[in-house]
Design goal:
The complex is a heterodimer of chains A (463) and B (177). In chain A, strands 5-4-12-13-14 form a five-stranded parallel sheet. Chain A has four domains: 33 residues; 152 residues, 3-Layer(aba) Sandwich (Rossmann fold), CATH 3.40.50; 98 residues, Dimethylsulfoxide Reductase, domain 2 (3-Layer(aba) Sandwich), CATH 3.40.228; 65 residues, Barwin-like endoglucanases (Beta Barrel). Chain A is built from 16 helices and 21 strands. Chain A is of the alpha/beta class and 463 residues long. At the A-B interface, helix 1 and helix 2 of A face helix 1 of B.
Chain lengths: 463, 177
């Protein structure tokens, strides 16, 4: 008769025996493979490959993209005649962002706008000025006596390919400040001197890294043509470029997007605010916008991600996203690679009551002279949606809601902490970065962090 | 020793089930849709691998040929075998693509370039696919019901071993794009 003790021994023996068979290890592997394909995970189709070309609109560089497609489905993107940055390479994943905005209430938004206070002004905030859509917004607002607003742009465009020496005063040259593929393609042709207190990734890849120095004196000693840059292409840096003869050669005036100055708009004067966040570049802290709004203002955000101004707007209307969206960048028109889902709203049609498709027929391609408008902020809003998994797994870049601190700050790797300013608190995870100087904090500039910080330096406290 | 007998009995049962029973359950043999002979095509038609398993214009590998390729020769029965008649009746005449089961299909997170291995690496098909090109009958396709992939699919260990042997160790992103 089998006793309880014997039954336990049999089970224990079976457990040990099973470990010496392929079964548990095979089940672990199979479960991992199965988890890649479970319902809800988009899987590329299989079949004959065809190629389509389009233009990446994720940043103002507008790189030419060659898409490998199975049927109508793009399964991989690559650059044409050159590289494509990590964001562009995985741009076709963007429509599948799990938190994508899929539903909105356009009729309710229209009704609320119709009832808005007629004595207040209408405004459009365009987060990617310089497009054909932007021109239509500007015209529509001019016709209505409204405001066309855009985030602050850099003080000048730069031409990296024309420079023999580059003096960077803290500009993150290799970290998305200019299109990465173009920067690396030109890397062998210029000498980089990086002046930055922090030993950043750009500093690590520079020919010379100086924690500090006399910018003008160093610029004059470098082999020309010299390009001097800082993060925002500030007036002092533009003046220095003019002084050393770079104006028109490596630096030129930034394009005028014809935007109204937000600071000069009277507080409480905007009754209806449209925010085109469908192709967001730079952001403005919400507090700066909020004070310009009338008490009962109607705010409508056209967005595909809920992480930006959609957090504040009364109405959030879903939009197409790259590579579904029809758009243009620097004189080049995109070819949508995917059909946008049902229910998306065309911001141009909604705001300007015009057809973007018709307007794009008139777009004339511009000659690419190598002039680029740097990103004064970052592409963090898109990056956070597009590459969160890549960021987290690579450990090379900060993931959203992570802060980097210098060693000795009393915080350990992966500690729970809080990013704190007078405007609020944000729970974060800690990454210890030996490249940071003592007391310095680095974080990903997502819209929620931007709202929290504004111009104020945040501090990190234990969570 | 006697107190260990139940333990050993349990271990033996598990070892037997794990080595003999488990593979039979987990690897389901599935037939290919058509009784195809690589040998006949190589010997009688003089076909080479890349006559049917061709590269596309963009350098990608086309895999199993589509029905159009087969119908180029088999528009009408070429012989009197039952397999030939079945192929014509079930696929060529109604224009229905055979749903070939791929032995080498990789998971979705793996990018494998045939053109890089064959044109740059100068590898022969047999290096990875064995002697399938000379067989008279297609081997059974063992499909794993959990993962959905074939048992014959090349594992990452095999890729790494060959790359290591040829001093071609690269980054994760080469294959996991």
């Amino acid at each position: 008769m089998t006793t309880r003790r014997a039954a336990v021994q049999i089970i224990a023996g079976a457990g040990v025996g099973a470990l010496f068979t392929p079964a548990p290890w095979r089940l672990v592997r199979d479960t991992a493979l199965w988890s890649e394909n479970w319902p809800g995970i988009p899987r590329p189709k299989r079949g004959p490959i065809s190629a389509k070309t389009t233009v990446c609109t994720l940043c103002p560089a507008g790189c030419a993209v060659r898409a490998r497609c199975v049927g109508d489905q793009p399964v991989s993107l690559a650059g044409v005649n050159g590289g494509l940055c990590p964001l562009g390479v995985i741009g076709h994943h963007l429509p599948y962002y799990p938190r994508r905005v899929k539903q909105g209430a356009p009729e309710e938004a229209r009704a609320a706008i119709a009832k808005a206070d007629p004595t207040k002004r209408v405004a459009v905030l365009d987060l990617r000025p310089g497009r054909t859509a932007s021109a239509l917004y500007r015209k529509a607002m001019k016709d209505q006596g409204g405001l066309y607003l855009a985030p602050p742009q850099p003080g000048a465009s730069v031409n990296l390919a024309a420079a023999k020496s580059v003096l960077s005063v803290g500009a993150p040259l290799f970290e998305g400040w200019l299109p990465p593929a173009e920067v690396f393609a030109a890397r062998d042709r210029f000498r980089l001197v990086q002046i930055e207190r922090e030993f950043s990734r750009t500093a690590a890849m520079a020919d010379v890294w100086l924690p500090s120095g006399d910018v003008a004196e160093i610029a004059r000693k470098l082999d020309g043509p010299v390009l001097v840059v800082d993060r925002t292409m500030s007036p002092a840096i533009v003046a220095l470029n003019k002084e050393i003869g770079g104006w028109g050669q490596t630096v030129q005036a930034a394009p005028d997007f014809g935007a109204d100055d937000l600071a000069s708009v009277a507080d409480g004067s905007i009754g209806v605010l449209y925010i085109d966040e469908s192709n967001a570049g730079e952001y403005i802290p919400w507090q700066e916008i909020e004070r310009k709004l009338a008490p009962n203002a109607v705010t409508v955000a056209f967005a595909w991600s809920p992480d930006g101004y959609a957090r504040h707007a009364k109405f959030v209307l879903p939009t197409a996203v790259f590579p579904e969206a029809l758009d243009d960048v620097d004189g080049r028109v995109t070819t949508p690679l995917l059909k946008a889902p049902e229910g998306v709203v065309d911001p141009v049609e909604f705001i300007a009551k015009a057809s973007l498709a018709d307007a794009l027929k008139e777009v004339k391609p511009k000659e690419d002279g190598g002039w680029r408008l740097p990103y004064t902020g970052t592409l963090d809003a898109t990056a956070s949606a597009l590459s969160t998994k890549v960021y987290q797994e690579s450990n090379l870049l900060l993931a959203p809601r992570h802060v980097a601190v210098a060693p000795g700050a009393g915080l350990a790797e992966n500690d729970a902490a809080v990013l704190e300013t007078s405007r609020g608190r944000l729970p974060v995870r800690v990454v210890v970065d030996a490249g940071l100087p003592a007391g310095k904090v680095r974080f990903l500039g997502t819209p929620e962090v931007l709202d929290l910080c504004g111009s104020e330096e945040p501090k990190v406290v234990r969570g | 020793m006697k107190p260990l007998i139940p333990f050993l009995a349990g271990a033996l049962v598990a070892l037997g089930a794990g080595w003999a029973g488990f593979p039979r359950v987990i690897d389901r043999a599935r037939p290919q849709p058509v009784d195809f002979s690589h040998k006949v095509h190589a010997d009688k038609a003089g076909a080479k691998c890349d006559d049917c398993h061709a590269f596309r214009d963009d350098g990608t590998f086309a895999g199993a040929p589509a029905l159009d390729k087969c119908a180029g020769c088999h528009a009408a029965p070429m012989g009197t075998t039952a397999a030939e008649k079945a192929f014509i009746d079930q696929y060529v005449t109604p224009g229905r693509e055979p749903q070939w089961r791929s032995y080498a299909r990789q998971p979705e997170n793996v990018f494998f370039s045939h053109v890089a291995h064959m044109k740059l690496g100068k590898l022969q098909c047999e290096k990875c696919h064995g002697n399938i090109g000379t067989t008279d009958k297609l081997p059974a396709h063992f499909e794993d019901p959990i993962s959905g992939y074939s048992r014959q699919t090349m594992s990452m260990d095999a890729c790494i071993a060959c790359h290591r042997e040829n001093k071609l160790e690269h980054s994760c992103m080469d294959c996991h794009k």
